[in-house]
Amino acid sequence: MSLAGKHVLVTAGPTHEPIDPVRYLANRSSGRQGFAIAGALAALGAQVTLVAGPVSLPTPPGVDRVDVETAAEMADAVARALPVDVAVMVAAVADWRVDTAGQKIKKGVLPPVLHLVENPDILATLARSPQRPGLLIGFAAETEHVIEHATAKRARKGADWIVANDVSGDVMGGTANAVHIVTAKGVESWERLPKEEVATRLAGRIADALSRGAA
Predict the structure, then answer these.
(1) Which has more confidence, 22 or 58?
(2) Residue 27 annotated to the active site
(3) 193/188 Cα distance (integer angstroms)
(4) What angle, 0 to 180 degrees and rounded to 10, lies between the N-to-C axes of helices 32-43 and 195-212?
(5) Cis omega before residue 83 (within 30°)?
(6) pLDDT tens per residue across span 77-123
(7) Mapping DSSP to helix (H, G, I), strand (E, B) and coil, where does residue 41 land?
(8) How buried is 115 (Cβ within 10 angstroms: 0-12 exposed, 13-18 middle, 19+ buried)?
(9) Is the confidence at residue 171, as pLDDT, over 70?
(10) Which end of the chain, N or C, is less packed with Cβ atoms under 10 Å?
(11) CA angle 7, 8, 10 (to 5 degrees)
């Protein structure tokens, strides 16, 4: 099974949205699952572009890495990477950003009011793009009703697959993951596995889908 000749885009890690020069909003993503997926895809011969949020993980062998900090920077990097055959959007992108203060916000009598602005929806934007990948995969980190929320997200975002997991335990930052692959054909549930094994199985499933010309 090979992905030779295929260009795959992977996003991984969190984004950091500055509040002031010393504080930020973020999600609790280690980037491990996304980095493992990028490495597994490269091991099958794909040309892999990895757009990584601020994490301290080593770049997997054979992967071209682009480091970003904010959701806006990630959206720009994703757009610059196109066209690709497959996109695997693993990153835990912050839903909102803040009107950033130029100086450190000092503690006062009352807590400061943060004005939140919605970040670009990278997955949905990619689904609507004229350069939409032939196979578009999103991730859903849920704490309840995992399959129901993932199924709704797949329809809402326009993705081909949603890889959903329950993050109410130690998944974010941990070394293992149990996922559900939600597609137009139904749901495929995998047992809890090391994140490297999840990555290997997902890369193989992607290669098989491309070989059959089906999502």
Answers:
(1) 58
(2) yes
(3) 14
(4) 50
(5) yes
(6) 999 999 999 999 999 999 889 877 677 878 776 677 888 989 999 99
(7) helix
(8) exposed
(9) no
(10) N
(11) 150
